[in-house]
Design a protein that fits this description.
- By secondary structure, the protein is mainly β.
- It has a single domain, classed as Rieske Iron-sulfur Protein, CATH 2.102.10.
- 6% of the residues lie in helices and 44% in strands.
- It contains one helix and ten strands.
- The strands form three sheets. A four-stranded antiparallel sheet has the order 2-3-4-8, with no helix packed on it.
- Bound molecules: FE2/S2 (inorganic) cluster.
């Protein structure tokens, strides 16, 4: 697997403007759908498809415990670990995210081209 960093915003200020606190944004990056969540602890990139039945987590809400609540059956995922809070389904994938001087980046794994 190759690990690649992708720029998702030109700057932190741009990200803060486009995704206000406690809001989410659906991003399509290198063929993957990612939910970007702006939490009190900063930005988090989590897989958009809910591990339960695939609803879009970017249409969910961030609660006061820093969990994202799926809009379909209200399963809650911890935005640090990706764990479903009541152990009802598998964990969601959290992607590494870095705020750098030249932008906001996330790291994705890609299969090498054949
Ligand atoms: S699809 Fe997300 S909780 Fe069921």
């Amino acid at each position: 697997m190759q690990h690649t960093w992708y720029k998702i915003f030109e700057s932190e200020a741009d990200a803060l403007k486009q995704v206000p606190l406690r809001q989410t944004r659906l991003l399509a990056v290198a063929g993957k759908e990612i939910c970007l969540a702006h939490t009190a602890a900063g930005f988090v990139a989590i897989q958009d498809a809910c591990p339960h039945m695939g609803s879009s987590l970017s249409r969910g809400n961030i609660n006061y415990l820093n969990e994202i609540v799926c809009p379909w059956h209200s399963y809650r995922y911890n935005l640090q670990s990706g764990k479903e809070c009541d152990y009802r389904t598998r964990n969601a994938t959290i992607y590494p995210l870095e705020v750098r001087e030249d932008g906001v980046f996330i790291e994705l794994q890609q299969k090498p081209a054949e």
